[in-house]
Amino acid sequence: MKIIKRIIFSLILVSFASASFAETKMRITLQLPLKAHLGQNLLVFKKELESRSDIKVEIYDSAQLYKDKEVPQAVGSGAIEAGVASLTRFAGTNPEVDIFYLPFLFDSEKKVRKATQAGSEIRSILDPAIANTGAVPLYYQAYGSAIMLSNGGPMKTPADFKDKKIRVFGKTLGAFISSVGGKPALISGSEQYLAYQRNTVDAGMTGVSGVKSRKLYQVMDTLTVTNHGDIEFVVVANDKWLKSLTQMQRNAIAAAAKVAEKAVRDDMANIEAGAYAEAKANGMNIVNLTSSEVSALKKASSSVIDDYISRTGGSGGVGDKLVKAANKL
User: Fold this and answer.
1) What is the rounded average pLDDT of the residues 265-286?
2) Residue 82, exposed/middle/buried by CB under 10 A (0-12, 13-18, 19+)?
3) CA-CA distances (angstroms) from residue 258 to 49, 122, 139, 165, 264?
4) Structural domain spans, the chain
5) Which CATH class is domain 24-327?
């Protein structure tokens, strides 16, 4: 009997020890390659979090688990602990998130920084709304300004867009294309290379860093620096999973997120400069717009802002408040 009691006591000790040293796992899904700057930034987050807690981070890049459009539901449902998605992927339930994609509204890095910093008037509206989907924003990942890709010539005027089928990655960005005479085609980031290669579309919209990480210079020869929208990605975590963690673990996630968010925002100018240099080195024609060309595109697409306000509550609604907050920056 004493031997049995010793065995039982030993098993209890082993079980207790195993529980004490059990790791908490945080899987993060990413649609881009790990070498892309968003992937490299997740490595910063991973290093910071693992140094502060017992949480072990696993990154699944290149859409191994979920495509960009699938991330909000996957994280919100708890199918995975965390993920990275373009902010516009939440527009289905929260159309107001497309504030960053309104044409030429955020026309300087200074404005973007003010708008995206934690606790800003804009994020104080957006983040709680996104969290209601079950996917809680941890931090925003800067992806740079939206640019246009094409073959055979630039996209400088509404005439250049007319009747062309153009890859976009959100409804409001599609509205911009429609307003200047083009035909928007919603295509996931991980699928755009093939879309260009197969001539599924005539032109495309993306961030310049994506031209580098996805080697889009292999299938498109012209890059037009329109800077007509600010592309933001967001790292989100499942609400129930977060609440199951200890306060120390949640504090560690918040601290790691703060470090990673600052790192990617501070390095964005260098990231874009490097991407432009690589695109040019690989034969792309880089075309900058004149102030009059910007004005013409801005005038042609002014209805997009009115439509956005109408879709998000009209005058005095959430979209109207966000536009006014953006105009004050």
Assistant:
1) 95
2) buried
3) 11, 18, 7, 39, 10
4) 24-327
5) alpha beta
